[in-house]
Amino acid sequence: MDAFLKELPELAKEKHLETKKYFARLKKRTPKNLDVVMKDLHQKEFKKTDCLTCGNCCKTTSPIFTNKDIERIAKSMKMRVVNFIAQYLERDGDDFYVLKTAPCTFFDESDNTCFIYDVRPKACEEYPHTNRRKFIQLTDLTLKNTEVCPAVYNIVEALKIKLPFVGGKK
Q1: CA distances from 65 to 28, 101, 112 (A)
Q2: Are 147 and 8 contacting, i.e. CB atoms less than 8 angstroms apart?
Q3: pTM recorded for the entire structure
Q4: Hey, which of 31, 42, 97, 166 would disulfide with 65, CB 3.0 to 4.6 Å?
Protein backbone atom coordinates (compact mmCIF):
# COMPACT_ATOMS: atom_id res chain seq x y z
CA MET A 1 0.00 0.00 0.00
CA ASP A 2 2.78 2.47 0.89
CA ALA A 3 4.41 2.30 -2.55
CA PHE A 4 1.08 2.71 -4.34
CA LEU A 5 0.14 5.58 -2.03
CA LYS A 6 3.38 7.40 -2.85
CA GLU A 7 2.76 6.93 -6.58
CA LEU A 8 -0.95 7.78 -6.40
CA PRO A 9 -0.80 11.57 -6.92
CA GLU A 10 1.38 11.12 -10.02
CA LEU A 11 -0.76 8.26 -11.38
CA ALA A 12 -3.92 10.29 -10.83
CA LYS A 13 -2.39 13.33 -12.55
CA GLU A 14 -1.40 11.18 -15.53
CA LYS A 15 -5.00 9.93 -15.81
CA HIS A 16 -6.60 13.29 -14.90
CA LEU A 17 -7.48 14.48 -18.40
CA GLU A 18 -8.61 11.01 -19.52
CA THR A 19 -10.82 10.66 -16.44
CA LYS A 20 -12.19 14.19 -16.76
CA LYS A 21 -13.19 13.49 -20.39
CA TYR A 22 -14.63 10.12 -19.39
CA PHE A 23 -16.80 11.74 -16.71
CA ALA A 24 -17.93 14.45 -19.16
CA ARG A 25 -19.10 11.73 -21.57
CA LEU A 26 -20.67 9.85 -18.68
CA LYS A 27 -22.69 12.96 -17.80
CA LYS A 28 -23.91 13.29 -21.39
CA ARG A 29 -24.93 9.63 -21.68
CA THR A 30 -25.49 8.44 -18.12
CA PRO A 31 -26.37 4.74 -18.05
CA LYS A 32 -29.52 4.01 -16.05
CA ASN A 33 -27.61 1.42 -14.03
CA LEU A 34 -24.65 3.68 -13.11
CA ASP A 35 -25.44 3.74 -9.39
CA VAL A 36 -25.78 -0.06 -9.35
CA VAL A 37 -22.46 -0.46 -11.19
CA MET A 38 -20.75 1.99 -8.83
CA LYS A 39 -22.13 0.25 -5.75
CA ASP A 40 -20.85 -3.08 -7.06
CA LEU A 41 -17.38 -1.67 -7.88
CA HIS A 42 -17.27 0.03 -4.47
CA GLN A 43 -18.16 -3.19 -2.63
CA LYS A 44 -15.60 -5.23 -4.60
CA GLU A 45 -12.86 -2.68 -3.92
CA PHE A 46 -13.58 -2.47 -0.21
CA LYS A 47 -13.53 -6.25 0.17
CA LYS A 48 -9.79 -5.97 -0.54
CA THR A 49 -9.07 -2.46 0.78
CA ASP A 50 -8.68 -1.64 4.47
CA CYS A 51 -8.75 2.08 5.14
CA LEU A 52 -6.73 1.58 8.32
CA THR A 53 -3.70 0.65 6.19
CA CYS A 54 -3.85 4.05 4.49
CA GLY A 55 -5.58 6.99 6.19
CA ASN A 56 -4.49 9.34 3.41
CA CYS A 57 -7.84 11.14 3.38
CA CYS A 58 -7.39 12.04 7.06
CA LYS A 59 -3.75 12.99 6.50
CA THR A 60 -4.31 15.33 3.56
CA THR A 61 -7.88 16.67 3.32
CA SER A 62 -10.60 18.05 5.53
CA PRO A 63 -14.21 17.01 5.45
CA ILE A 64 -16.96 19.60 5.41
CA PHE A 65 -18.52 19.95 8.86
CA THR A 66 -22.28 20.58 8.83
CA ASN A 67 -23.98 22.34 11.72
CA LYS A 68 -25.36 18.97 12.86
CA ASP A 69 -21.84 17.50 12.77
CA ILE A 70 -20.48 20.38 14.81
CA GLU A 71 -23.23 20.13 17.43
CA ARG A 72 -22.84 16.34 17.75
CA ILE A 73 -19.04 16.40 17.98
CA ALA A 74 -18.94 19.37 20.37
CA LYS A 75 -21.47 17.65 22.64
CA SER A 76 -19.42 14.43 22.65
CA MET A 77 -16.33 16.45 23.59
CA LYS A 78 -18.29 18.34 26.25
CA MET A 79 -17.54 21.63 24.51
CA ARG A 80 -19.71 24.56 23.58
CA VAL A 81 -20.29 24.79 19.82
CA VAL A 82 -18.72 28.25 19.63
CA ASN A 83 -15.57 26.99 21.37
CA PHE A 84 -15.36 23.90 19.13
CA ILE A 85 -15.59 26.08 16.03
CA ALA A 86 -13.01 28.54 17.34
CA GLN A 87 -10.55 25.80 18.28
CA TYR A 88 -10.81 23.45 15.29
CA LEU A 89 -12.60 24.97 12.30
CA GLU A 90 -12.43 27.72 9.72
CA ARG A 91 -14.50 28.70 6.69
CA ASP A 92 -13.18 27.66 3.28
CA GLY A 93 -13.54 29.52 -0.03
CA ASP A 94 -17.05 28.10 -0.47
CA ASP A 95 -18.01 29.22 3.06
CA PHE A 96 -18.09 25.67 4.46
CA TYR A 97 -16.65 24.75 7.83
CA VAL A 98 -13.44 22.71 7.45
CA LEU A 99 -10.55 21.84 9.73
CA LYS A 100 -7.85 24.43 10.34
CA THR A 101 -5.10 21.85 10.07
CA ALA A 102 -4.04 18.70 8.26
CA PRO A 103 -3.63 15.94 9.19
CA CYS A 104 -7.04 15.89 10.85
CA THR A 105 -6.93 16.92 14.48
CA PHE A 106 -8.86 13.78 15.40
CA PHE A 107 -6.64 11.38 13.44
CA ASP A 108 -4.32 9.03 15.31
CA GLU A 109 -1.30 8.58 13.04
CA SER A 110 0.01 5.66 15.10
CA ASP A 111 -2.75 3.34 13.87
CA ASN A 112 -4.78 5.41 11.36
CA THR A 113 -7.84 5.50 13.60
CA CYS A 114 -10.16 8.36 14.49
CA PHE A 115 -10.61 9.72 18.00
CA ILE A 116 -14.20 10.76 17.20
CA TYR A 117 -15.14 7.87 14.90
CA ASP A 118 -18.55 7.26 16.51
CA VAL A 119 -19.55 10.92 16.01
CA ARG A 120 -17.43 11.76 12.95
CA PRO A 121 -18.74 14.18 10.31
CA LYS A 122 -21.21 12.84 7.78
CA ALA A 123 -18.68 13.56 5.02
CA CYS A 124 -16.22 11.18 6.71
CA GLU A 125 -18.88 8.54 7.18
CA GLU A 126 -19.78 8.67 3.47
CA TYR A 127 -16.21 8.94 2.17
CA PRO A 128 -15.11 8.19 -0.53
CA HIS A 129 -18.65 8.76 -1.89
CA THR A 130 -18.31 6.10 -4.61
CA ASN A 131 -21.39 4.18 -3.52
CA ARG A 132 -23.76 7.10 -3.11
CA ARG A 133 -26.99 7.48 -5.06
CA LYS A 134 -26.82 9.92 -7.97
CA PHE A 135 -23.10 9.30 -8.35
CA ILE A 136 -23.13 11.31 -11.57
CA GLN A 137 -23.46 14.47 -9.43
CA LEU A 138 -20.21 13.60 -7.63
CA THR A 139 -17.82 13.18 -10.55
CA ASP A 140 -15.87 16.39 -9.86
CA LEU A 141 -15.33 15.34 -6.25
CA THR A 142 -14.47 11.80 -7.36
CA LEU A 143 -11.88 13.15 -9.81
CA LYS A 144 -10.19 15.03 -6.93
CA ASN A 145 -10.43 11.96 -4.69
CA THR A 146 -8.50 9.81 -7.20
CA GLU A 147 -5.42 11.76 -6.06
CA VAL A 148 -6.11 11.05 -2.37
CA CYS A 149 -7.69 7.62 -2.10
CA PRO A 150 -6.21 4.50 -3.70
CA ALA A 151 -9.63 2.83 -3.57
CA VAL A 152 -11.23 5.67 -5.55
CA TYR A 153 -8.47 5.50 -8.14
CA ASN A 154 -9.05 1.74 -8.50
CA ILE A 155 -12.84 2.11 -8.64
CA VAL A 156 -12.66 4.77 -11.37
CA GLU A 157 -10.23 2.70 -13.44
CA ALA A 158 -12.52 -0.34 -13.00
CA LEU A 159 -15.50 1.78 -14.08
CA LYS A 160 -13.73 2.72 -17.32
CA ILE A 161 -13.29 -0.99 -18.03
CA LYS A 162 -16.83 -1.92 -16.97
CA LEU A 163 -18.47 0.86 -19.02
CA PRO A 164 -15.95 1.55 -21.81
CA PHE A 165 -18.61 2.56 -24.35
CA VAL A 166 -19.11 5.80 -22.45
CA GLY A 167 -15.51 6.69 -23.16
CA GLY A 168 -16.09 6.12 -26.88
CA LYS A 169 -14.03 2.91 -27.07
CA LYS A 170 -16.70 0.43 -28.22
Answers
A1: 31, 14, 20
A2: yes
A3: 0.90
A4: 97
